[in-house]
Write a structure and sequence with these properties.
By secondary structure, the chain is an alpha/beta fold. The chain folds into two domains: 118 residues, 3-Layer(aba) Sandwich (Udp-n-acetylmuramoylalanyl-d-glutamate--2,6- Diaminopimelate Ligase, Chain: A, domain 1), CATH 3.40.1390; 125 residues, Udp-n-acetylmuramoylalanyl-d-glutamate--2,6- Diaminopimelate Ligase, Chain: A, domain 1, CATH 3.40.1390.30. The protein contains nine helices and eleven strands. It has a six-stranded mixed beta sheet with strand order 5-6-8-9-10-7. It has a five-stranded mixed beta sheet with strand order 1-4-3-2-11, with helices on both faces. Strand 2, helix 2 and strand 3 form a beta-alpha-beta unit. Helix 2 runs parallel beside helix 3.
């Protein structure tokens, strides 16, 4: 098995040309033709993740978020990014990142979140012009039965394992049609409003964006890590299905940089 084999396995549902122009998905560190025997799957690559890969004798790390997002001008111990790269190179660990190409896949990040919430009749929130059935941002779906808004918020919190949610004012209406986008989905809020959904779930919503729905949609910020966390299972399942004998496991190291203080 080579690093390229694992990369190709994931790009079958999320080709690299689907990534956004600003992104850096694909091979981050290493040689595509190098042998790969065991992969560690994570959302973010940190120095602690590389340490876990070393301890578990993994020669490949597959992440959602790229470690190298902007160009590196030097490799020194100055930042965690540089230290992680240096350590990976020293221990012959390759790194692959599947970012906005997997965000934009119909079978990708938002689809997995929608499935976890129990939404049906799914379609892309903002389909691409070139491949509208397969590629685009976000997801729209419906519940079999409408939920009270507080029931919907409870389901979201339980599904993503969050102790609290930021949301706009309750509308007083039940929630049946839902739009969502794992990660930073504020730019797609106009698409959700045009589709007349009852609620829009995403992350990284700025304060003034909560005014935009004007009481017409329940806007919910579930957190960036929380709304993308199931990407790890998705990547792991893709690899195991394609290569049943290949060792792939989800990292145990916490990489969510956000913590919550909940008043007792």
């Amino acid at each position: 098995m080579t690093v390229k084999d694992i990369l190709n396995c994931i790009t079958e549902i999320a080709p690299l040309h689907w990534q956004e122009s600003y992104d850096n998905a694909g091979l981050q560190v290493g040689d595509l033709n190098a042998e790969a025997h065991k992969a560690l799957i994570c959302l973010d690559i940190t120095e602690a993740i590389v340490d876990e890969a070393i301890a578990k004798k993994c020669d490949l790390i597959v992440s959602h978020h790229p470690l190298i997002f902007r160009g590196l001008k030097h490799l020194t111990p100055e930042t965690y990014i540089e230290r992680a790269v240096m350590k990976a190179v020293k221990h012959d660990i390759a790194m692959i990142s599947m970012h906005t190409n997997l965000d934009n896949s119909y079978l990708g990040v938002s689809r997995v979140l929608a499935d976890r919430l129990g939404l049906k009749n799914l379609h892309l929130l903002q389909p691409s012009e070139s491949e509208p059935e397969l590629c685009g941002a976000g997801m729209v779906g419906e519940f079999d039965e409408p939920l009270e808004e507080t029931e919907f918020l409870q389901r979201v919190a339980e599904t993503i394992g969050s102790p609290c949610l930021r949301h706009s004012a309750l509308t007083g209406r039940k929630v049946k049609k839902v739009a969502l986008c794992g990660g930073s989905g504020s730019p797609f809020m106009p698409d959700a409003l045009r589709q007349r959904v009852d609620a829009y779930l995403t992350a990284d919503i700025k304060y003034h964006d909560f005014f935009v729905p004007e009481g017409n949609v329940l806007l919910v910020d579930g957190g960036h890590f929380e709304t993308e966390q199931f990407t790890k299972e998705l990547i792991c399942e893709l690899i195991r299905k394609k290569f049943p004998t290949f060792a792939a496991e989800i990292a145990e190291t916490r990489t969510n940089a956000v913590y919550y203080f909940v008043k007792s």
